[in-house]
Automatic annotation (TrEMBL):
EC id: 1.1.1.95
Annotated ranges, domain D-isomer specific 2-hydroxyacid dehydrogenase NAD-binding: 108-285
Family: Belongs to the D-isomer specific 2-hydroxyacid dehydrogenase family.
Keyword DNA damage annotated: no
Name of protein: D-3-phosphoglycerate dehydrogenase
Enzyme class: oxidoreductase
Listed PANTHER family: D-ISOMER SPECIFIC 2-HYDROXYACID DEHYDROGENASE CATALYTIC DOMAIN-CONTAINING PROTEIN-RELATED, D-ISOMER SPECIFIC 2-HYDROXYACID DEHYDROGENASE FAMILY PROTEIN (AFU_ORTHOLOGUE AFUA_1G13630)
MF term (GO), any: phosphoglycerate dehydrogenase activity
A matching Pfam family: 2-Hacid_dh_C
Every D-isomer specific 2-hydroxyacid dehydrogenase catalytic domain range: 6-317
Length: 335
């Protein structure tokens, strides 16, 4: 029996779809609502589901007994109830090595744009205020201090690019030792608050966990230089937006570049939209064409691999999955 994979409109890049259809039946759902996903999985006896931003909830996992695999088209798993997937014996995969170059480039772009206040300068020229050049002096990034929060693949790639601009790079990551960071030319920061007064730029690339939720709030902004800039390419809730707004309005910090927000898509009345020292983008730091193609190809290959009985290096719930899958098989009457 040929197994079936469910995709959701708008779906992954053609390179991934083509790979899937070569090996399996592919069904396309019109939207990612809970009801639609449950309906399509049960109607077509779906074995694998690939999602982008759609939520995979406990209700979906509890009501779709044929589901074996969930493929996340990207790195973050905030939209998937991994615990429920594990309890139901469903494997969860992601594509962790597809977009780190794109995200690192976006961070470098943000550093340069913030240092020159590029959006405001562009607006001034378009408004005929050419003499603004005598009122505002941009800063060089040469020899400035960059703190990278989260020294995974993105942080390591950003380090390489930052070194090309002669930035001094410091890293905060409880999971990497001082010696490991030194291999990448990074000085390890043990206590975040102690180093914040020395930072010119802070770039966030940490996952959202209980310990990282609102890791930047009023206390942290108070410690930062009033010329310092913060860049968030991780998750919106790494930053307390109310505290950030206060810090920006009161000029406690120099500015921010935000690719992610606490509410996505944001309310159009979000007060951050009115500030000239904020650069916003729609959570697409890793969404270059090249990264999308790599991600689509990677997740498609890994999903097909596990459906054929092979092991995937990108399985995120491997440690406790075995017993749950055994329970699921027994409940289904499968030996």
């Amino acid at each position: 029996m040929t197994k079936t994979i469910l995709l959701i409109e708008p779906t992954i890049r053609p390179i991934g779809v083509e790979y899937l259809t070569t090996n399996y039946n592919v069904v396309l759902a019109p939207n990612g609502s809970e009801e639609t996903i449950i309906e399509y999985i049960n109607k077509f006896n779906v074995h694998a589901l690939i999602v982008r931003t759609e939520k995979v909830t406990k209700r979906i996992l509890d009501n779709c007994p044929t589901l074996e695999v969930i493929g996340m088209h990207g790195v973050g798993l905030d939209n998937i109830d991994v615990a429920s997937a594990t309890e139901n014996g469903v494997m969860v995969l992601n594509a962790p090595f597809s977009n780190y170059t794109s995200v690192a480039e976006h961070s470098i772009m943000s550093i340069l744009a913030l240092s020159r206040n590029l959006p405001l300068i562009d607006k001034k020229v378009r408004n005929g205020e050419w003499n603004y050049r005598d009122m505002f002096y941009p800063m060089e990034i040469n020899a400035k201090n960059l703190l990278i929060v989260g020294m995974g693949k993105i942080g390591q790639e950003l380090t390489k690019k930052a070194k090309a601009f002669n930035l001094n790079v410091f890293g905060f990551d409880p999971f990497l030792s001082e010696s490991e960071m030194k291999l990448h030319g990074v000085l390890k920061v043990e206590k975040l608050e102690e180093y914040l007064p020395k930072c010119d730029f802070i770039s966030l690339h940490a996952p959202l966990t209980k310990s990282t939720y609102h890791m930047f709030s009023s206390k942290q902004f108070e410690l930062m230089r009033n010329t310092a800039f913060i860049i968030n390419l991780g998750r919106g809730s790494l930053i307390n937006e109310e505290a950030l707004l206060d810090a920006l309005v009161s000029k406690k910090i120099g500015g921010a570049a935000l690719d992610v927000l606490e509410e996505e898509p944001p309310n159009r009345d979000n007060p951050l939209f009115k500030l000239d020292n904020v650069i916003l983008s729609p959570h697409f730091g890793g969404d270059t064409l090249e990264a999308k193609d790599r991600c689509s190809e990677s997740i498609s290959k890994e999903v097909c691999k596990v459906l054929s009985g092979e092991i995937s290096k990108n399985l995120v719930n491997n440690q406790v999955l075995g017993n749950a899958r055994a329970r699921k098989s027994i409940l289904k009457g499968v030996k």
